[in-house]
Fold:
Amino acid sequence: MRNAAAQPAIEGEVWPGVAWAVQRDLRLALRSKAELGVQLLFYAIVVTLFPLGVGADPALLRALGPGVLWVAALLASLLSLPRLFAADFADGTLEQIALSPYPLAALISGKILAHWLATGAPLVLLSPLLAVQFGLEADELTALALGLLLGTPTLSLLGAIGAALTLGLRAGGSLLALLTLPLYVPILIFGAGTVEATRAGLAVEGGLSVLGAALLAALVGAPLASAAAVRIALD
Amino acid sequence: MNLADFFAMGGYGFYVWGSYAVTAALIAVETVLVRWRLRSAREAIRASEQR
Amino acid sequence: MFRSINWFKFASPASFYPVAGHLIPWFAVPAALLAAVGLWLGLVVAPTDAQQGDAYRIIFIHVPAAWMSMFLYLVMAAWCAASLTFNARLASMMAQALAPTGAMFTVVALWTGALWGRPAWGTYWAWDARMTSELILLFLYLGYMALRHAIDEPRRADRASAVLALVGAINVPIIYFSVRWWNTLHQGATVSLTSAPKMASIMLVAMLLMSFAAWFYAIAVTLIRVRAIILERERRTTWAGDLAGAAR
Structure:
């Protein structure tokens, strides 16, 4: 796990733990670039389904756009959550990680950060492109992208709790959705709402502040809750 | 107020009785199920004791 | 008197089982009586409302059910917190026993709310803060029960669902305020869906009686259910065999 020739781990150190976890998980994620590409493609396809389903009326699409783009982001995030813990749990690595001297919450934060960089960040970059299909204006695109930039890490953080609680369970995927989507609802409301606020002429800072506050709260609470849930699953 | 008026509920009979009926049904179902659950648990223990 | 009883003795499922059995009638009978009086007052005695006609009589079920759905979730979350803090099996069992009744009241609140909304404000459903939060609350109850059901090992099920319940408890007020903010943005909901008719005192009395009836009913049903859960989970112990063979 750790290069014994390098500095030995000191019990309870947070940042080296985070750094180690980010490096490891990013390296693993980049080995399966195809899988990441598929998840991004899923996002694009879901977004495309809505105009096909509701018709191509531009006014309707403009009204639906923010909501659709955000809901699709939620679904894409849900789809990518199992990769956070499942592989490590299956081959026993997660147990080793829990036994390490680094705080488990710190290691999990690192894993979540790597997860977001691999799955959430590309989504943020792609979203303005897809949003153009819905006729969103430049200021709305900015509100959307910034909102997703603040929101997708929160989705990864909150999703980690659900992923940890459902580790190794048969019903896995749908149960994970049932548990996690209620947690996602406020992020969805404020994320889509920020774009609509911009449309109504209000300043974008309002909604973004709330999303930022949610991110901060999740940064503090989610790794701790996930660590507790992981330990429950491993016992 | 006579019985016919009571059932009609000023024309809102469907809504009022629809609410009360479903609630009564749910409560009845819950009471039955929970007592059946207790009975089954007792019987399961008795059955395994007899072995 | 309180100090001479070792209250922690009742923290064991074995000693709580008979206590629960004795308590049940003390809640079941008053629940039935309170409901009878409340229903008579609400359906027969209380006058017809000037604005909503007789449709308003739904509140005698809707409001108590909504209160119960939220109250029971908080109690459930409190038992979950206790189970994690004290590592007590009985606390988990109480939470497990509360969930189905809480879910039932949530369904009643949603159903009666829809049937009240139609005659009162013209629509069965509206995405206002209260109805949306109530719907999410139902998903939280169902999620709790689903997670429990999906985990075979009982202690893992206890702890995992406890974490879930606590996280959910924080979520509900957040969702409530999120939807309120979202609605002010849209300004579509000019009708205040939270307004009940101006309450004549007889209506208030009826509603309070029904609320207490619902509360006592919930306690009675939960006690029965927790007895079943205790027997299910402790079936391999000798005391369970004795109790199951006994009459009550």
